[in-house]
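Most newcomers find our protein records easier to grasp once they have seen one. A learned vocabulary of local backbone shapes supplies the integers on the structure line. Here is such a record, shown just as it appears in the course material:
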Amino acid sequence: MSWLRRLSRDRSSKNEQDFKMPARPSSFADQQSPPYKDTQYASTYNSQDRLGSSYRPTTAPQPDPQHYNALPIQRPQEGSNNATAHNTPPSSMAQAPDPLTRAFNEAVRPYLDKIDRLEAEIEEKTIDIQQLEDERADMYAWIDKRGLRADVPPSIAAAMNHNDTTSAQTLAHHLDRKMTILNHDLHRLQDSLSSHLPTSTFTTTLATLLPAIESLSLLPNGPPLAFELLIKLGGNLNSHGGEDGYNNDGDITSRAEFYSRLDETMVDVVRRRLEKGNEEEGPWYVGKDVKRLEKTGGFLRSKIGLQTYFPRTLDVMRYEVKRSEGGVNGRHGSP
């Protein structure tokens, strides 16, 4: 058994001597690893740099750092696309230079000042117009309060009647009031005189109301009011005179001329009334007014011998009555 142990000890010592690794030479650390070894395993920065420098040609030209500094590169800001970067104008075009803006402002300044002056003048004129309108309204109120609308000039009368729905009623009221005042004045004048007052004085005074009555007939709803005023005007003339005035040839002639003028005005009023009608008071019964005029004419014929009392007016009205009775126009006729 002793010899067997000695034999195994000798073989084990021999194997260790046979497979003993030789020492690593010192120059092996300076050698470089193959390229594929460096790609399979992680390497340090120094090994990669040395590996790249070994394969980099030594004759390649190196770029000049000053060349990059000489060409400025404009990089777009973050978050902006290429289209926005190309369409954005330069800073020199985004805002006009101060000298150009100053020149433009100086060029338009006279026109702006003129506009300001005109606006101030317009405001002043507006105030003046409003003041004039207030004064005109006060003047119209003063005229109507004293019943002088029939005496104002035609231009003022036209302005007062413009856009006034009650202008016809107001003017008719003023004319009626004026007619009453004139009638009373003529009566007082006749009573103050010891002799007869000529009829021509009455006719001339009362005839001053005819133009205003004609103007009344042109207003809306004015013909019926003018019709009544003309009949009243003739009645005022009949209240003057007396036995001496009725029998005087001069007075008879003056009276006939006045009634002829009344008849002439009445024909126009009747025709306007038949054309326009009076929607507010209902239809006009022409036959009733025909009887009224015929009755008054018969009285004057027997009293003062007046043969003509609205003769042409009666002819127009009688013709209208016949048309109504024949069914041509059923609106105007006798009740």
Summary: The radius of gyration is 63 Å. The chain has 16 helices and no strands. Confidence is low (pLDDT under 50) at residues 36-55, 67-76.
